[in-house]
Amino acid sequence: MATDHQQCPVAVIGAGVMGTAIATTVLGSGLPVVLLDVGQAELDRAERTIEIQLRHARMMDALPSGRAPGRLVTTTSSSALAGARAVVEAVVEHEATKVGVLTDVAGIVDADTPLISNTSGIPIDTLADPLPRPQQLIGTHFMNPAYLIDLVEVIRGRRTDEATVTAVTELLAALNRRAVVVRDSPGFVTSRLLHPMLNDAARLVDEDVATAEDVDRLMVGCLGHRTGPLRTADLIGLDNLVDSLAALYERTGEQRYRPCEQLLAKVHDGHLGQKSGRGFYDYREALS
Ligand SMILES: NC(=O)c1ccc[n+]([C@@H]2O[C@H](COP(=O)([O-])OP(=O)(O)OC[C@H]3O[C@@H](n4cnc5c(N)ncnc54)[C@H](O)[C@@H]3O)[C@@H](O)[C@H]2O)c1
């Protein structure tokens, strides 16, 4: 009997900030997920976080209504991804790691399975280059928190084919997500605009022009930002922000992308933002 591909799980690789939130979005839409990470501890934490995020998403009316959550399977073995409907790669923002993961999974899933990277800014064409089927790679830049934000930046690589674009926009529609499709370029649209702004905000604190609180208060109160750039940086994860800026700097040579000392020092000290309990702000009480 032929398998109905729509009923097959969505594979999510990487159970960090984004992989967990993407898994919540898919599960909350009633679709099954197989979530892979290299560490069991990350998977255990993700399972607990998904429970909380599902409740939060329902409270905020952010997911399709009237659907029972899909089934979650967690694994450290990539062979468990065989038969996936689509693969979403959400591992760290390092080109070699992403290419390794995508190459491995391309050899495991069916030949027509779309491969999706959630990279913040590494060009899709660069990631596609070493793959056996580069036409099946596409970028979906889910924003954080993915289970609350219904718009997704979709990046069509130079070689991404029409079937992949269609399969991925259909999948996003099943998640009640709207897509804006853009062309490939370092940082695409959102990271190219947002990341240097976050870097500059950290630089202002570095130069003692203003405190983190005052930078954010000005951006919220005067310019209508929702939370301010430094709270946003803490939400993203300062390690990921540094990696994303470094990836953009490496590809463009533009100084505005060079991670500033303030960010590098915080990452060096393990102050990664919300996920570690401290960043520009202190979250330890909320986490305890
Ligand atoms: N954090 C954000 O706000 C945000 C927003 C949009 C896009 N992104 C992008 O999403 C991706 C993931 O970012 P994140 O913030 O979730 O990172 P993270 O550091 O929170 O999580 C990364 C996860 O990947 C896992 N991992 C590393 N190597 C792996 C491998 N070989 N196989 C399987 N798992 C592996 C790690 O154990 C970790 O759990 C990055 O490309 C990032 O740039 C992040």
TrEMBL record:
Gene3D superfamilies of this UniProt entry?
Answer: N-(1-d-carboxylethyl)-l-norvaline Dehydrogenase, domain 2 (1.10.1040.10), NAD(P)-binding Rossmann-like Domain (3.40.50.720)
Q: Which SUPFAM superfamilies did the record assign?
A: 6-phosphogluconate dehydrogenase C-terminal domain-like, NAD(P)-binding Rossmann-fold domains
An example Pfam family from this entry, by short name, is 3HCDH_N
Domain 3-hydroxyacyl-CoA dehydrogenase C-terminal: residue ranges: 187-283
Annotated pathway: Lipid metabolism; butanoate metabolism
Q: Does the keyword ATP-binding apply?
A: no
The family assignment reads: Belongs to the 3-hydroxyacyl-CoA dehydrogenase family.
Which InterPro entries does the entry link to?
3-OHacyl-CoA_DH, 3-OHacyl-CoA_DH_NAD-bd, 3HC_DH_C, 6-PGluconate_DH-like_C_sf, 6PGD_dom2, NAD(P)-bd_dom_sf
Stated name of the protein: 3-hydroxyacyl-CoA dehydrogenase family protein
- Which organism's genome codes for this protein? Streptomyces lancefieldiae
3-hydroxyacyl-CoA dehydrogenase NAD binding domain ranges (all copies)? 10-184
Residue ranges that the Swiss-Prot or TrEMBL entry lists as coiled coil? none
Q: Does the keyword Oxidoreductase apply?
A: yes
Keywords assigned: Oxidoreductase
